[in-house]
Amino acid sequence: MLCFKRGGRLIKILVDADSCPVKDIIFEVAENFSIEVVVVKNLSHDIKNDYVRVITVDEGKDAVDFVILNNTQKNDLIITQDYGLASLVLTKYAKAIHPNGWVFTNNNIDGLLMNRHINQQIRKRDGKLTKVPKRKKEDNIKFKNLLEDTLTQILEK
Q: Model-level pTM?
């Protein structure tokens, strides 16, 4: 696998595979860009793809997050739905994008974490929140475009 270098080192994509609906898109785009992909998953997920490296961890709380964080370096790209993990990788000068096709930034992470906290409090009190809408084809297109644009930006720096 030929991988791109940025600042003298190889960049990679790290995927938080727990409930990631866009794995196939990530694998396709990464292979087109010749970027290494590291998928971190727990024992309950089965991922087979010859292009990617898969790391399997125990099902402990935050086990996947700790492996991703420990393997993240500057300019790496992390794909996650986990706001807490995203906030931590941003401190390592890595990029983080959500599978729904938007970017975690230093400007939006505090608000996202606060909303997560408020939603947790509501769930504790009321037991539920509004239903999450079903994923659409447009969501996948939006994510793929963002992934390609983000990789292009990283590689052009």
A: 0.83
